[in-house]
Amino acid sequence: MHFAAALGLGLPIGIGLAAIGSGIGIGFLGQGAMGAMGRQPEVLPKLQVAMIIGFGFAEALTIYAFVTMFFLQGKIQ
Amino acid sequence: MAAAFAVLLLPSQAASAVSLLAGQLLMALNFFFLDKLVKLFTEAALGGPDKRPRPLPGQFFVWLTLKLLLVYGGSFAVIRFDLAAPLPFLAGITVPLLALFLKSIMLALGNGPSSLRRRATKTAATFGDAAKPAALLLAVALLALPVLVRASDAVTPASETTTAPEHGAASSEHGATTAEHGAATANQGGGGGIAHLPNWVVILNDYFPDNPVVRWMHANEYLVFAWLAGLVFLAFAWIAMRRPKPVPGQLQNALEWMVESMENVCGGMLGKHLPRYFPYIIAIFFYILTMNLIGIIPGFKSSTSTLDVTLALALMTFLYVQFWGIRNLGLLGYVDHMAGSPRDVVGFIMLPVMIPVHILGELAKPISLSCRLFGNIFGEDTLIVVFVGATALCLKASLTALAVPPMLGISALFMLLQTLTSIVQALIFALLTTVYLYMMLPHEEHAHGEAHPSH
């Protein structure tokens, strides 16, 4: 298989798979945050900030895949 | 010194030696007169016990005419009537000036009451603990600047390919003339770059392609925008905090709110060590925030959308954290920390495993910081490019009324998302710096490997 074809096939699939993991992680974060906000509405601002920061961390892993794609996409001629 | 110079020359060229001496004598005479004149002038200006300026005494003018006659008249006469060889004469005039210059350097570097060293350390003391590593880094950066400029010129041909096909399409909205320039650079940039939106540096480059300054700015766009972001934030902070009032105005209130929120969050982690690290954390936060937010304004680019800038920031943070780690824990404590703090036999047996693991973990921190920031901001940038490019494409294909409003609407929506991501990523960078600093504090009950945000 030509390496450009392999890259062209593999890179987007890689990002997609990484996004699955990120999606699950963010889903768990959101679930915990929503549950806690429902039980104790007065800590809502603090939880919101913590939730958004958590989203940032969970996104980071997909971003690593994205960066890898960015480095390799030049080689698809 | 005068005699030494003359003696050196005397055996070979007597006339030159005499001229040299004559020049030095003339300058010495000048200094003598200047000394008298300055003393009289300052006494008159500062006045007597009542501290009001007095008129200049008549003695001042006597000395002044004497100086003009002797010094300037003398030098004129020497040159006009060829009393001494001109070149050694001029050299002799400069010799006492050289002596004065050397004396001033020795005064500045020495330990007297007006030395530069004393004044520099006094200023540094007012900045507190953050001053020393910051001053060192600043000195290194300033010294390395010519090297970096030279190196960046060498890399220029490779970075010219970043202006891409989208440049031609998107700039057709700005003006007709830039379209041809855009097409020209698009041909040059077909080598496989991801599209960028034009910013004012690129437009300047289109109008003045031969200007070396503009070319350097175009080759180092991200540096120009990094400096611009720093200047913008400094201007904002200066305007906001110029005259702080007890009941603050709007800008001051906004700035204080942001700083105090960061203080609350970081103080919750660092506790009493906050004042030492907070200047760096808040500086990094505001700098990254400004750099990210500037990219939303059309015509500007966020320098954090290049891996170079984010890597530089992450490396700086890494060095800062390690520096304070070694300073807080001591060298032995730092190695102990890296080794996983072995306390029993099992710990010592695991040593060869734990040390590489911890070192790798420490090295992963700047990589993850830089990649996270770069990926987020660059991804947002690319999203906007795609939608704005689609808008431009619709305009070019004259589907104006049909396609442009929804495209513009979507672009605006994604710009809102870009704002959110910019703020969140700056916050995450600063918070992670705080967490890494917290890890490096001397602690006993820290559970290794469990509280690590290690990605």
Protein described:
The complex is a heterodimer of chains A (77) and B (455). Chain A is mainly alpha-helical. Chain A has one domain: F1FO ATP Synthase. Chain A has helices at residues 3-39, 44-72. The two termini of chain A are 15 Å apart. Chain B has two domains: 2-109, no CATH class; 220-439, no CATH class. Chain B contains 17 helices and no strands. The longest helix of chain B is centred in the C-terminal third of the chain and has 46 residues, at 351-396. The radius of gyration of chain B is 33 Å and the shape is extended. Residues 157-192 and 444-455 of chain B have low confidence and may be disordered. The chains are: A mainly alpha (77), B mainly alpha (455). At the A-B interface, α2 of A face α16 and α17 of B.
The end-to-end span of chain B amounts to: 67 Å
Proper CATH architecture of chain A: Up-down Bundle
For this structure, the quaternary state is: heterodimer
CATH topology of chain A: F1FO ATP Synthase
As a percent range, the share of strand residues of chain A is under 5%
Number of DSSP-assigned strands of chain A? 0
Written as H for each helix and E for each strand, in order along the chain, the element string of chain A is: HH
- The shape of chain B, in one word, is extended
Largest sheet of chain B: none
CATH superfamily of chain A: F1F0 ATP synthase subunit C
The top level CATH class name of chain A: Mainly Alpha
The low-pLDDT segments of chain B are: 157-192, 444-455
What are the defining features of this structure?
heterodimer; A: about 80 residues; mainly alpha; F1FO ATP Synthase; B: about 450 residues; about 75% helix; extended
